[in-house]
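hiii, so i know i said id send this last week but things got crazy w the move. better late than never?? heres the sequnce for the chain we talked about at the cafe, plus the structure i predicted for it. fair warning i was half asleep when i ran it
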Amino acid sequence: MERTLAVIILSFGLWALTGLIGCTSDPPQRESFEDCLYGAPEPIFDGSLPGISQHQFKLEPGRGLERFVLNQSTVVQIEQTGCDQIRQEFTFSWEAANRQEDWAQQVIQKYRELGELGAPYLSFSAISEVLQSRQEQLRPRGEAISLQPGLAFRIKVAEAGQQSKLVTVLYETAPEEE
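okay and structure toks below
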């Protein structure tokens, strides 16, 4: 477990330093990113990677929106908002039969798939491992799970039907929130 947390810390630090994540957590109405700690949001994923198709990214006032198809079956949309604290909302949508989903397993699998896209995305594999170890805590609209000091995760929405939808939030927390 300590090794996994160390991997997350290292991966997340490298992720932030290389600019794979953008600006988030201040009010979304912010128009400019000039004074943001991380600068303007940038695409996290590379559309030329095997496993990613139909990749799009657009920067709007106060947010960055990225959308792509993962492994020809899951539509992924990522909304990055804010400025000095990272906040990313991941929406995963896929075709499914009318049945109840095992949301803990779905979220673990979706983050594992993101991590399998290559070395720059290994932090998603580390997140998947931590979620696997805490899967009994993974509930839609449940409490946030601390992935490591300063980094939290929660399932915001989970809907089953012909089109299943899973919305997760990955965000930095202030020291007083821990």
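btw The longest helix spans residues 2-17. thought thatd interest u
miss u guys!!
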